[in-house]
Each structure stands twice: as structure tokens, then as C-alpha cells.
Design goal:
Layout: H1 2-50, H2 53-73, H3 79-90, H4 96-104, H5 113-135, E1 144-148, E2 153-155, E3 158-167, E4 172-182, E5 186-193, E6 196-197, H6 198-213, H7 215-229
Helix pairs in contact: 2-3, 3-5, 4-5, 4-6, 5-7, 6-7
Length: 231
């Protein structure tokens, strides 16, 4: 009888210890999960503090306009030299692949690799011409002030940054909105100038041609445009 009691006692203790062990494992798992989640949130917050999109947008614009100011100071601000400035200062900060994707919209996945490269080339050359036109409007750069607006829009790795550029003795003001995307760093994918989004403008052109005349016609049209721009 005594042996049976001891047997049941040890069995009960074993079950209790097993229950406690399982409970501790489960608690540790939950705590680890919570720590991991908090760590990810904190890392995201730290990333936003260290590298916010508005700072990236300011750095890109300030760098470009500082170079333009120097060109004007040296009487070297020809359209050709402004284009060189854009290729050196702005182009490395543009996400051409993303700009091309959203410009083509639903038609992007229907393109071959060579056709995608063709579209990217067209977007590059067209954006350069557009930016030459935008930067060419800034004449008096002796006193210039660049600020970001309050209505910054963030969605995951995308951001839209309103910017106000004041320059000249009469403090002329220009409003821009920069669309940025972050992969390893923040890069431009769109600029809205005078209320017109450059990428949405391309998107509307491409969609209209592809819908009315077909995708093959659009690609042929883009090929002709690229050849014309590069002349």
C-alpha cells in the first residue's frame, strides 16, 4: 500500500513539474515574440529619426541648387551644363525602375526585358529634360531658402514631401512636391511642379496610347522619342 502511495505521489509530482516546464517554455516564447516585435518597432522609429524622408529631400534639393548657384556665379549656367549638373547630382538620387513601373502601370509586366530598359531610358532622358526646365527657372540664387511643408504623407516605404523654395530679392516662391521611395536609401520617383506630377503625366500618355493604339504602337512611339531626345 505504501509503495502505491509513493508511486502515485511521484507520478503527481512529475506531472506538476512537466506542466510548470511547459508553462515556462510558453511564457518564454511569448516574451521573446513581444521583445522581437518591440525591437522591430523601435528599429523602425530609430530609422525614421536617423534618416527621415524630408531630410533626404532637402539634401537632394540643396545640393542641386548649390551647384546651380555656383554655375550661375561662374556664368556657366547654360542648358548643356545644367543637364550635366542633373546627371551628376540628381540622377543617382532617382529610382528609375520604380518611376518606370508606375509610369507604365498595368502594362509593365507585359514588356520584355529589353522593352523595360527602353522605357527606363526614355524616363531618364525625359526627366532630365523636365528637370532642366525646372532648374532653368531659378535665376536669382544669391538668397535662397528651402523648407519642407507640414503635410508630409507617409505610407510604408513611400513618402510625399511638400517643399517651398523662396529665392531672389523679391522672395519669389515655388512649391514642389517630391515623391520618395526607400529601399536602401530614400530616392526620388516623382516631382510635382506647378500642380503637375511628372510621372502621372507620363502614365496618362502611356495609358492613352496603349489603350487606343496597342502596346506595340506605344513601344515604337517610345523608341522614336528616345532617338529624338538623344539627337
Amino acid at each position: 500500500m505504501k509503495g502505491k502511495i509513493l508511486h502515485y505521489l511521484f507520478a503527481s509530482i512529475s506531472m506538476i513539474l512537466k506542466y510548470i516546464s511547459n508553462f515556462l517554455i510558453f511564457t518564454t516564447f511569448i516574451s521573446g515574440f513581444a521583445f522581437s516585435s518591440n525591437h522591430q518597432v523601435n528599429s523602425k522609429k530609430v530609422s525614421d529619426i536617423i534618416d527621415p524622408p524630408e531630410s533626404a529631400a532637402l539634401n537632394i534639393i540643396v545640393s542641386s541648387l548649390s551647384s546651380l548657384k555656383e554655375l550661375r556665379k561662374q556664368n556657366q549656367a547654360s542648358l548643356e551644363n545644367i543637364e550635366k549638373l542633373i546627371r551628376i547630382k540628381l540622377l543617382p538620387n532617382i529610382d528609375i525602375n520604380y518611376s518606370s513601373r508606375i509610369s507604365m502601370g498595368k502594362f509593365w509586366e507585359e514588356l520584355t526585358d529589353s522593352e523595360k530598359k527602353l522605357v527606363e531610358t526614355y524616363i531618364i532622358e525625359s526627366l532630365i529634360q523636365d528637370y532642366v526646365g525646372i532648374l532653368g527657372t531659378y535665376k536669382e540664387l544669391d538668397s535662397i531658402n528651402i523648407t519642407t511643408g507640414k503635410n508630409i504623407v507617409r505610407e510604408d516605404n513611400l513618402a510625399r514631401i511638400p517643399m517651398i523654395i523662396s529665392y531672389g530679392k523679391e522672395k519669389q516662391s515655388v512649391n514642389l512636391e517630391m515623391g520618395l521611395i526607400k529601399t536602401n536609401s530614400w530616392k526620388i520617383y516623382d516631382v510635382t511642379y506647378s500642380g503637375v506630377s511628372l510621372i502621372k503625366n507620363y502614365q496618362a500618355q502611356f495609358a492613352s496610347l496603349a489603350s487606343r493604339k496597342g502596346l506595340e504602337f506605344l513601344i515604337n512611339n517610345i523608341t522614336k522619342r528616345v532617338l529624338t531626345i538623344k539627337k
